[in-house]
Each structure stands twice: as structure tokens, then as C-alpha cells.
Write a structure and sequence with these properties.
The complex is a heterotrimer of chains A (638), B (159) and C (120). In chain A, 48% of the residues lie in helices and 24% in strands. In chain A, a hairpin with a 2-residue loop joins strand 18 and strand 19. In chain A, 38% of the residues are buried. In chain B, a hairpin with a 2-residue loop joins strand 6 and strand 7. Chain B is α+β, with helices and mostly antiparallel strands and 159 residues long. Chain B has one domain: OB fold (Dihydrolipoamide Acetyltransferase, E2P). Chain C is an alpha/beta fold and 120 residues long. The chains are: A alpha+beta (638), B alpha+beta (159), C alpha/beta (120). Chains A and B meet through helix 10, strand 23 and strand 24 of A and strand 4, strand 5, strand 7 and helix 4 of B.
């Protein structure tokens, strides 16, 4: 082969062409296309394609070819926004490929870029935002392959499908478990979720397009997590120390560990009974010790399994710079993305489920928060807006922050809007504090309405964002300053499988209430609870607190004599006092799903198995608050 | 996809008693049979959903077949059992008055339920078999467990 | 305005059941056919908004009928009605252009939902 001899010639020639391409593109951006300039660019691309192809550098040849086609279309008179950016990205990628030719690496994937070049050639300016849509079918969905294909068909009618994993042919042959992922471009990616929902579909997740890695699989081992060093030798060594494990297996492992914990508690109860028998004291002692050891091992095991389910949030964050760039371009804004705390680890299922809410927040920040460059200049702000995405670990959970330095939420307009929609009277709106007025953006009525009319405040699906985060046992807070910007803070649990919970009894049933939703427990004598029709309330430190029994909130027949204890639970900024008979204790519980047969039970987030083997329901504080207050409103009307 | 298992000449059934009738449950769907346990109630569920139980670490729903079929509530006693069936990937327990036997039934003994029964009973059956003087009603589990119909019922009750 | 439906199935019982389900949900069944050939002919005459199509039928089967109808009217909306174990055929029908499917035995809401989706 003459390759070795030709290589230096090729490399220096490539450098020249890349330089020429770059200068040409910049000129193109300044002056617009002229035939001579475009012809020059075309020649460079063409030559690069030819030599790269001859030497077997496939990716480089492919990219140069796609570039050539775009230039051809430009020569034929096609125009459009964003071309310069696309071409510059192309030049950068070709440079990276040229670098790999000299150092022998294979790091750069050109496929996505090639597809975007093609899309530009065919469809003009880049249209729609690239997102990954992951659809999970229900386990009882009949004919999964056929269902997946029918869903893809629907998707095609509303978005441009670029790629599907597993590939469609494989799906048609039945090679589909429960999930498939499609990379699509859509003008309204958030609408896809609803479009694909149906009785056969377990979940639809939409997130910014990212690496096409299958997240069903987790890499175990410290080397695999976080960033891998670029050195291929290191990468190879690290990969020997890691194993890929199906996440479902980890879930099963988690269930088994949960059983161990339950067994341990049983052993302790048996030991306790033995102790009361004559002559078995020594035996009881031994059993208690063994049970204690079993307990320690079980909790270690539990901690290890939980750890194995963790992923750095980078998996999600890394998708955003590109997403923001596209959003900004469409909106005619300039936005700089700052990402912090990428190494922060979260349970895989939490990461999967906050993609949608984060997309909403980021999109709102770019569309409504950050001002156009001219306006920013006039205001004396840097022309490029700043969008900060940050994650940080706290003791009990993770904080994720989405912050912009835009115009902030215009609470006057939010008030106006709410009054206009009949959510509030003008007087009530005027009485709201700034903080309360900002809270209005989470009101479902306001959220939906503003999708059509676009208030200068936010609102697009903010109720969905809050609901999504609360469903995970988290919360959303917002701070805003007129003219200075807005910060959303998402408080998320570290993991979903285990929560710290309060165990209470009420009307003979036991319930677990996640501690994250419990504000305090207070003792309130029955005569301090006042009745107004069927609605009850007490006064707690000067504020009215609606009171409801757990059973009422759940719609079960209420016990005759409610207890004296009130468990104050919160959902959003509202609170409710839940009547309970007794507080039995506090501890870590393993969360089990209720299963697809029962589906979503309002007010209940799952179940857990107690020490005596019986099942206790886990209450969902924010849903209970919602249910209780809804009932209260009804009572008011009636 | 291999739905047809060729020409099966007979089927195996777990025969259970409910009120005065004998019902046949196809054995390939029966996961196990357990004694009655304390059940945790589920709010806003349809009336025939009795609640959930702990099946060795898994939380599974239990339905009361008497209520499902609109029969009078029966007394629970030592003979009551929970038949755990597996259907479309989920496990569900069905409370029955008693489990009687496991039997083989030739396909030729099965007739469509319409031929022998009133229309109201037919909804949950896939056939009826004559056995001496007795009838065995063959349950159509798909219908008995129909998740979506059941969902709607649940929604109706909360509405 | 209620959508107009062509119901194709070789079993009289199934046609009656589907007709009832659709009528109850406010659709209008404008024609019925008991095999593929007839389905194509009825489609031409009645120009329905949507078709429910059985798969296993004498003369021309459902998948062929889908191809034939879509060849004549590429905007035709067809929902397959399939028995269990016919996934390969359903896949074929969808690849040929059918919009959705239900699996027998189905409850009525499923069918109605599938038809609504197809009409969307």
C-alpha cells in the first residue's frame, strides 16, 4: 500500500482545503452567496471527498459528500437561515476527522450531521427541533411489534422521523421488547407525548436528542461513570472493569433485597416472642443477634444496589447545549448555556422522568425569558443571554436549577391574564402578594390558555412541569426578579425505590406518608376543629388549616372517632391537616408499584410491605392535598 | 408468534366453586393457589377489587369473583382460597369459595355458553362443559380481568 | 357530522357487533362487506371515512384488500381487526398503510378509540 507515503500529502492538502472552506463560509455569512465564492467552496469539498474516499476515510468522505450536496443546492439558488452555522460545524467536524486520521482515533460520529445537511438540502432552513421520543408499551399490550409500527406511523404524520432504535425492519420481525426510541424533528415536540398516548402505551418520554445510547443498560463500576478519558488505551482498560446490566435485573434485585429487610423484621419479632417463653432466653438472644446481622447486611446490600442504579445527570444535561442552540436560533435570540454539576448522580428513573419537565423550563426560558439581542443591548445587558443548568446534591435529595438572566416574570400580566380567564376576581388578584402571583403560573387554567396566546410571563405547561416533578416526590420552586431573570429550582429525591416515611394508623389501616411531604405533626383537640358544612378547619399559629381524615381524602368510609393528631402535609404551597389515630414510627420503606392492573390510584403513590408481611399503602401528600381541597371546594358550592 | 398449539384434544382445568356453580380456570394461567390473607383496601377501586396482598414480596391485586359476577356476598371460611392467575404479564388474585379439583376435559365436551345459559351469565365465559349431571362453566379470564373496562368502572365511581 | 364507516368481516356476528358498537358511539355504518373483493367494491361506491377490516376472509384477504383500497385511494383510513396470533399479518397491513388495529376479543371502547385515532 502506498497509504503511508501519501498520508502526509493528504493531510497538508486537507488542511489547506479546510482553511479555505472556513474563510469562504465566513465570507458567505458576511456577504451572502455569490457564484464564484460558492464554486470555490464546492471545489474544496469535492477534492476532500475524492482524496478521503481514495484513502478509505469513510466518515470524512461521507461528510464531505453531504457538504458538497448542500453547496450544490446553494449554487442552484436555495437559501435559508442558519446555513453558516451548519457549514461551520461541518468544517469543525472535518477538522476533527482529519485529526483522527493523524492520531488513529475513531471518536467522531458524523451521522447526525450528515442527516442535518441532507435535511437542509431537502427542506430548506432547519425545521423543527431534534428530540428523542422513547415509547414504552405496556406489558399487556398485544402485538407489540404491530403496535410499535402503528405508533411510528402516527409519529411520521406529525414529525420528521430520522432514526429508530431498534430499526423498523427489526421491529417488524418481532425484535422488540417494550421500548423503542425515535429521533425526530418536530415543531412542537411537547405535543408528541399526548399524540402517542393510548391504552397500550405505558409511557412516552420526550427529551432533547442526544447520544443514541440505550439507557436501559447501565455501566457498572466507577470507571464507567462520569467522563471517560479520551485516551483510547485508558478507555479500553476501563471497559474491562465494567459490566453491563439490564436495569430490570437491578429492579428485581431491589425487590429481593426488600424482602430480606422484611424477613429481618420478622426474625426480630420471633426473637421477641421467644424471649417471653420460659427457658428460651439464650436462644432468643442468639436469634436477635443473628437477625441484627442480617439486617446490617441487608441494608448494605440495599445501598449497593441503589448505588448501581445511579447515573450522572450528565446523561441528560449533555443534550441541552444543542437543544438550546436550536431553540435560540429559531427564536432569534443569542443564548449561552452554562452547565454545572454534571457529575451529580441520580437514580436512573428520576433522570428519565425529569427530561420532559426540564425541556419545558428551558424552552420557556429561551422563548419568553431571554430578550432578543437588540433589546438586551438597549438594556445594557450582554447581547447573549445566559442560561444556567445546575445540579447539586443536598443531604436528602438533589437540587436541579434552571436559571436565566432574562426579563423575569411580569406578575402584573400574569394577574391580568388570570383575571381575564376568570380564575380570580380583579380584587382578589390585586390582593395577591408578588410571591402568590408568581405561583399563578402553575395554575392549570393559566398554563393551557397561554399556550395559545403566549403571555410575556411563562406558563406553557407549567402545571405539567409541577405535576411531573411532584409525581417523583419532588417539588418545584420559582424565584423571579423583573428585568433580572428567573430561577426554577427542582427538588428531587435521590432515588425512587426507597423513601423515608412516617407510618401512621387510621381507622384500623396503616399508611406510609413520605417524610418529604410532611411538615409537622400537631396535637389538636377535637373542639379546636371547626365545622363549616362538611368542611372542617382549625387554626394553626394564626393560619387557617383545612382538616380532613385520611379516609375522607381517599374516598373511603371514614371512621367514627377521628383522632387528635394532625399530620400537616404539603403539596405546592398549600397544606392540609390529615387526621390520624396514631403515629407508629418512621423509617425507610421500599416502594413497590401497585401494578398495571390497578393503574394509577389517586392519592396513593405505591405500596410497601410492613414487618408483619401486610401491605400498607404509600400516600401521595400532594395528591391528597389536591383531593382534600377539591372536596372542600365542592362543599363550599353545595 | 405461536398462538395455536396444534390440535389440542383436551384441556386442563382448575375447578373452583363459587356459590353453587363450578367454574373451570385454564391451568396454564394459574400461577398458584393460596389461603385467604388479610387484604389491604384500595381507595376508589371498583367494588369487586378487594384490595392488594403481599405475594412473597410482590404486591398484587385481589378481586372478589362473587362481586365480579354480581352474586351475593358469601361467607369467608377455611375453604376460601385465592387463585393467583397470570394474564398478559400481570398477576391477579381471585377469591373463590373453594378449589375443588384439577381435571382434564376433552374439547368435544365444550359447547358455546349461549346454548345452555341465559345471556347475562355468558359475558365472562368461553364455554360450558357437561360432566355427568354437572355443568362446568369455563371462565374467559381475559374478560374477567379486563383491565380497561375495570378502569372505566373505577373512573365512573370517582366521577 | 358523524363519520361514515365501512365494516368488513366475513362473520355476520362480528359485523353486527361492530355495527352496534359504532352506532352507539355516533358513527354511521354506511356499508358492509364479507370479503376483500367486496370490500374494495363497497369502498369505491360508498367512499367511507374509515374502514374496519378483518384479516382472514375468503376471496381476497384483509391485507390484500388494504393494498387494493390504498392503491385506489392513498388517503384511505383503515383499522385492522385481527385475531390473536396474527401479528405478522397485522405488521404487513400496517406497512401497507393501515392506520391502526384492534385484537379480538376487544371491548367496544377499544375499537371506537382506534377509529377515532385513525380519523385524527
Amino acid at each position: 500500500m502506498q497509504l503511508q507515503r501519501l498520508l502526509p500529502v493528504f493531510l497538508s492538502e486537507a488542511d489547506e482545503h479546510l482553511q479555505a472552506l472556513e474563510e469562504g463560509v465566513l465570507q458567505l455569512e458576511r456577504q451572502g452567496p455569490n457564484p464564484e465564492l460558492v464554486a470555490g467552496l464546492f471545489r474544496s469539498a469535492h477534492t476532500l471527498k475524492g482524496s478521503a474516499g481514495a484513502l478509505g476515510f469513510q466518515r470524512m468522505a461521507e461528510l464531505a459528500h453531504a457538504l458538497e450536496e448542500v453547496l450544490e443546492a446553494l449554487r442552484a439558488g436555495r437559501g435559508g437561515d442558519g446555513l453558516a452555522d451548519l457549514l461551520l460545524e461541518c468544517v469543525d467536524t472535518l477538522r476533527a476527522l482529519r485529526q483522527e486520521v493523524s492520531d488513529g482515533g475513531e471518536r467522531t460520529d458524523v451521522q447526525a450531521l450528515v442527516e442535518r445537511l441532507r435535511a437542509w438540502k431537502e427542506g430548506g432552513a432547519e425545521d423543527g427541533l431534534p428530540v428523542d421520543v422513547r415509547v414504552r408499551l405496556r406489558e399487556d399490550c398485544p402485538m407489540r411489534a404491530a403496535r410499535a409500527l402503528a405508533l411510528l406511523r402516527v409519529l411520521r404524520e406529525h414529525a420528521e422521523v430520522e432514526q429508530v432504535a431498534p430499526p423498523e425492519e427489526a421491529i417488524a420481525q418481532g425484535q422488540l421488547e417494550l421500548e423503542f426510541t425515535a429521533r425526530v424533528r418536530a415543531r412542537e415536540p411537547e405535543a408528541l407525548q399526548e399524540l402517542l398516548a393510548g391504552p397500550e402505551v405505558e409511557s412516552v418520554r420526550v427529551m432533547p436528542a442526544g447520544e443514541a445510547r440505550d439507557e436501559r443498560w447501565l455501566d457498572l463500576g466507577p470507571q464507567a461513570r462520569g467522563k471517560l478519558p479520551d485516551d483510547p488505551e485508558l478507555t479500553r482498560r476501563a471497559s474491562l472493569r465494567t459490566v453491563r446490566v439490564d436495569v430490570e435485573r437491578l429492579d428485581r434485585l431491589m425487590n429481593l433485597v426488600g424482602e430480606l429487610v422484611v424477613d429481618r423484621i420478622r426474625f426480630q419479632q420471633i426473637a421477641e416472642r421467644l424471649r417471653r417463653l420460659d427457658g428460651a432466653n439464650g436462644l432468643a438472644q442468639e436469634l436477635a443477634e443473628a437477625a441484627g446481622h442480617l439486617g446490617r447486611v441487608a441494608s448494605d446490600l440495599q445501598a449497593q444496589v441503589l448505588k448501581a442504579r445511579m447515573l450522572p445527570i450528565e446523561h441528560l444535561f449533555s443534550r441541552f447545549p444543542r437543544y438550546v442552540r436550536d431553540l435560540a436560533q429559531r427564536a432569534g435570540k443569542r443564548v449561552e448555556v452554562v452547565v454545572e454539576g454534571q457529575d451529580t448522580e441520580l437514580d436512573r428513573s428520576v433522570i428519565e422522568q425529569i427530561g420532559g419537565p426540564l425541556m419545558h423550563l428551558v424552552r420557556n426560558a429561551v422563548d419568553h425569558g431571554i430578550e432578543p439581542p437588540e433589546e438586551r443591548q438597549r438594556l445594557g445587558k450582554p447581547t447573549a443571554g445566559r442560561l444556567r443548568l445546575a445540579a447539586v446534591q443536598e443531604e436528602e435529595g438533589i437540587l436541579v436549577v434552571v436559571e436565566d438572566d432574562g426579563r423575569g416574570i411580569d406578575t402584573d400580566r400574569v394577574r391580568e391574564k388570570a383575571v381575564g380567564l376568570g380564575l380570580l376576581t380583579a380584587e382578589a388578584a390585586a390582593r395577591l402578594s408578588e410571591e402568590e402571583a408568581v405561583e399563578l403560573i402553575f395554575h392549570p387554567g393559566l398554563s393551557t390558555a397561554s399556550q395559545v396566546t403566549d403571555v410575556s410571563g411563562r406558563g406553557v405547561g407549567m402545571d405539567a412541569v409541577r405535576a411531573g416533578v411532584q409525581a417523583l416526590g419532588g417539588s418545584v420552586e420559582v424565584e423571579t426578579q423583573r428585568g433580572r431573570g428567573t430561577r426554577f429550582t427542582l427538588r428531587l429525591p435521590l432515588t425512587l425505590a426507597i423513601v423515608r416515611a412516617l407510618l401512621v394508623s387510621c381507622g384500623g389501616e396503616r399508611y406510609a406518608i413520605p417524610l418529604a411531604g410532611v411538615q409537622e405533626i400537631v396535637e389538636v383537640p377535637a373542639d379546636r376543629v371547626h365545622r363549616l358544612g362538611s368542611y372542617r378547619a382549625t387554626v394553626l399559629r394564626g393560619n387557617a388549616l383545612p382538616v380532613v381524615s385520611v379516609h375522607e381524602a381517599l374516598g373511603l368510609p371514614a371512621p367514627e372517632n377521628p383522632g387528635r393528631l394532625l399530620c400537616v402535609v404539603t403539596g405546592g404551597r398549600r397544606r392540609v391537616g390529615l387526621w390520624v389515630d396514631r403515629v407508629l414510627g418512621e423509617g425507610e420503606i421500599v416502594v413497590k408499584p401497585l401494578g398495571s392492573y390497578l393503574g394509577q390510584v389517586d392519592g396513593v403513590s405505591g405500596a410497601t410491605i410492613l414487618g408483619d408481611g401486610r401491605v400498607a399503602l404509600i400516600l401521595d401528600p400532594s395528591a391528597l392535598v389536591r383531593l382534600a381541597l377539591r372536596e372542600e371546594e365542592l362543599a363550599h358550592v353545595g | 408468534m405461536n398462538a395455536q398449539r396444534g390440535e389440542t384434544k383436551e384441556q386442563q382445568l382448575v375447578v373452583v366453586r363459587l356459590d353453587r356453580e363450578r367454574y373451570g380456570v385454564p391451568i396454564e394461567h394459574v400461577h398458584e393457589i393460596i389461603r385467604m390473607q388479610e387484604v389491604t383496601r384500595i381507595p376508589r377501586a371498583p367494588s369487586f377489587v378487594e384490595g392488594v396482598i403481599n405475594l412473597r414480596g410482590q404486591v398484587i391485586p385481589v378481586i372478589d369473583l362473587r362481586r365480579r359476577f354480581g352474586l351475593a356476598a358469601g361467607e369467608r371460611n377455611g375453604a376460601s382460597r385465592i387463585v393467583v392467575v397470570e394474564m398478559n404479564g400481570s398477576r391477579v388474585g381471585m377469591v373463590v369459595d373453594a378449589v375443588l379439583e384439577v381435571m382434564r376435559l376433552p374439547d368435544s365436551a365444550v359447547v358455546p355458553p349461549e346454548e345452555l345459559l341465559a345471556a347475562s351469565e355468558v359475558a365472562f365465559l368461553r364455554g360450558v362443559a357437561k360432566q355427568g349431571d354437572d355443568l362446568i362453566l369455563l371462565l374467559d379470564l381475559q374478560r374477567v380481568l379486563e383491565v380497561h373496562e375495570q378502569r372505566e368502572l373505577a373512573e365512573l365511581q370517582t366521577a | 357530522m358523524s363519520a361514515r364507516v365501512l365494516v368488513v368481516d366475513d362473520a355476520l356476528f362480528m359485523r353486527a357487533m361492530i355495527r352496534e358498537a359504532l352506532t352507539n358511539s355516533g358513527f354511521q355504518v354506511v356499508a358492509e362487506a364479507s370479503n376483500g373483493e367486496e370490500a374494495v367494491a363497497r369502498y369505491e361506491e360508498a367512499k367511507p371515512d374509515v374502514v374496519t377490516m378483518d384479516i382472514t376472509m375468503p376471496q381476497m384477504d384483509g391485507v390484500q384488500a388494504v393494498r387494493e383500497i390504498l392503491r385506489r385511494d392513498p388517503s384511505a383510513r383503515i383499522v385492522m381487526v385481527s385475531a390473536m396470533g396474527q401479528q405478522a399479518l397485522v405488521v404487513e397491513a400496517i406497512q401497507a398503510g393501515a392506520r391502526d388495529f384492534v385484537v379480538k376479543p376487544f371491548d367496544q371502547t377499544r375499537l371506537v378509540e382506534a377509529i377515532r385515532r385513525a380519523l385524527r
